[in-house]
C-alpha cells in the first residue's frame, strides 16, 4: 500500500498530543482498514506517554523495552547475528 503526500494542518501544533494531519487527510482519503486506525492511535498514545516522562525516564523506559524485546521476543535474532558475523568477521559476540 502506498501513501500519498499529505498536506499539514494549518493550525500551529507543537505538542505530540496534536494530530499532525487531519483524519480526513490520513484515513478517509485513503481506504484504510480499521486495524490501521487502531495502530495509529496506539502509537500516538505511546509517543504522548513517552513525551510526558521526561528525558531520563524516557531513556530508562526505552532501555527496558529494548532489553525485553531482545531477550523475550527474539524475532529473527539468529538471522541478524549471523548477518552481522558475516559482515564483520573480525568482531566476536
Layout of helices and strands:
Elements: H1 23-28, H2 34-53, H3 55-72, H4 77-87
Your description of this structure?
- The chain is extended.
- With 93 residues, the protein is mainly α.
- Helix content is 59%, strand content 0%.
- The chain starts with 22 loop residues before the first helix and ends in a 6-residue tail after the last helix.
- It has helices spanning 23-28, 34-53, 55-72, 77-87.
- Look at the helices and sheets and give the structural class: mainly alpha
Q: How many DSSP helices? A: 4
**Mind summarizing the main beta sheet?**
none
Helix content: 55-70%
Q: First CA to last CA: what distance?
A: 38 Å
Mean pLDDT: 75
State the assembly state of the protein chains: single chain
Topology pattern, helix = H, strand = E? HHHH
> Outline, from the CA principal axes?
extended
In total, how many beta strands? 0
Poorly predicted regions: 1-9
Rg measurement, Å: 19 Å
Q: Which band does the percent of strand residues land in?
A: under 5%
Keywords:
single chain; 93 residues; mainly alpha; 4 helices; 59% helix; disordered N terminus
Quick rundown:
The chain has 93 residues and is mainly alpha-helical. The chain has helices at 23-28, 34-53, 55-72, 77-87.
